[in-house]
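Hi R.,

Here's the chain you asked about this morning:
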Amino acid sequence: QRRVHGIQKMSGEEPKLTLNTKAKPFVPKAKPVPAEQPPIFMPYPQMPGVPMNYYPPMPNPEVYPPNPIPQNEYQEEEEEEERKPERDAFGILIKKSKKKKKKQNKEQKEQNQLEKKKEAKKEEKKVAPKPKEQPKEDKKEEVKAGEEEKTKPGEEQKVTPAEIKKAEDDEEELPAKYVEVDEKRMPISIVFIGHVDVGKSTICGSIMVITEKVDQRTIKKYEQEAKDKKRDTWWLAYVMDINDDERQRGKTVEVGRATFVTETKRYTIYDAPGHSSYVPNMIMGAAMADIGAFVISAKKGEFESGFDRGGQTLEHLLLAKSLGIQKLVVIINKMDESSVRWSKERYEFIKSQLTPAIVKYGFNVEKNVTWIPLSGLTGANIAKPVDKAQCHWYDGPTFMELLENIELPPRVYEGPIRIPVLDKLKDRGTDIFGKVHCGKIQLGSKLVVMPYKIQAEVSAIQNMDDQYVKYAKAGENIKFRLKGIPNEDFIYKGCLLCGP
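And the predicted structure, written out as tokens:
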């Protein structure tokens, strides 16, 4: 209408307004009448002096019954939480081994069997009357019949609570026979330390070959493997470097271990890594040793690089002294190299350069330090003396003779037990590596884990040849198992085990 009115006005005509007679008149809607509300139920009495509006009203349960909560409302959420992988405090996934899962399932089955057995006994007691007393002969026959029933094939073996407890205490079956401890030979451990690529692994491998700890078939295998990798002179190092990564790179990563025996002593040698990235492994090897074999390369350039920035010569010397090594054998290796050729001048030069550093770090050069030149690759001066045509100026002992005549540090066999924890292994229990510094440990010994003051019991002891023994004295490097520890995380590197 407005549009028509505007057009008419523009054209000069008088506007004609029309009304919509069909439209309904506006009638306001009536407000709904509120229904009668049920009385308010008050679950607590009104206190005097407090208005009624102060209390929050609650619906009457008779008029408005509460909605029943289904029992399995949160079942789906709980199942989802169970399916989620477990994570530690840092958000890293915790991998569960299959052995642990099998063990948990086995324990759960045994527990279910015990519960069923107890319920069956209770029902029998309720229903069955008390049995009458029988003569002794009948009882013996019943026992024999029961024994025969147990031995019948095809039946399930019944598990008793005593057997379950025994299985928990003795998680690993120990051998019936133990190896006798060799009391005639004194135990002695040596660690080979020094800068990287000075020939520590080669010297250790040469000692193993000389003492016939490696057979000819294995030697040929290592020689062929070194030729395939175009490293003909590395085959002796393969005796100690077992990992493929170590053989490929030519660098020791983990502490190598080997044992051999002479007429008077039992030797354990440790091949420590020389690279700066693996200093923690070197510390572990040095902590288990009585004597330090400090290896120096006589080759021109290699000796000087050990003192440059990043060289490990002085750092290994300082760590050895800090970890308790008092006796030091300085081995000047690679004397057969073309740039040296058993030169006395080179030997004396290296000796004059090292002596101030050895004195600086607290070693007594006159009493506790010995010097020896040798060649780890050819084996010269290790067990047999050097040919006089090559080296006419050295008249001292060989390396093996020097070890036989060296004085051992004093040991206390009757004192209190002191065993520092050097490493820990979790394998169906808690296996601990350590050195007995004082006292004597044996099966059943009660120990206290410091600093947490947790009591534990020794259940198994192994020597360095992985043989079970009944006891170990001061000076022995052992691996032993403890039981009675509530949490394995309470034992770690650096803890001290002592007597109660």
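The chain is about 30% helix and 15% strand.

Let me know if you need anything else.
M.
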